[in-house]
Design brief:
Order of helices and strands: EHEEHHE
Largest sheet: 4 strands, antiparallel
Strand order of the largest sheet: 2-3-1-4
Number of helices: 3
Shape: globular
Structural class: alpha+beta
Helix content: 40-55%
Number of strands: 4
Oligomer: single chain
Strand content: 25-35%
């Protein structure tokens, strides 16, 4: 299983716009992707921003999604809302409790 974690920091208005895109566009698209398991979006308590955690069956499934036209289109809409490049990291799950 692959876990993709993105940390996002921006201003309050842009973060609210990004959450709307997440809810209306990104989340429904993710649910349709082969190999997608689940995702969480969590807001920071004390500043505009948050974290997105995605779970995928395989690295290949996540890479297919990330290189798809749908993914790139949503990323194009989100990029101006978080001008600093989000920190994205992939992890391989080794243990589960």
């Amino acid at each position: 299983m692959i876990v993709r974690i993105s940390f996002i920091h921006t201003d309050a208005q842009k973060y609210e716009e990004g959450k709307k895109i997440w809810d209306k566009e990104l989340a429904p698209l993710l649910k349709k992707q082969k190999g997608f398991l689940k995702a969480y979006r969590a807001d920071a308590r004390d500043e505009p921003g948050g974290v997105v955690i995605q779970f995928w069956d395989t690295r290949e499934a996540e890479e297919v999604w990330r290189s798809s036209l749908e993914s790139r289109e949503v990323a194009r809409k989100l990029k101006p809302l978080a001008p600093e490049l989000p920190i994205d990291r992939d992890f391989v799950v080794k243990n589960q409790v």
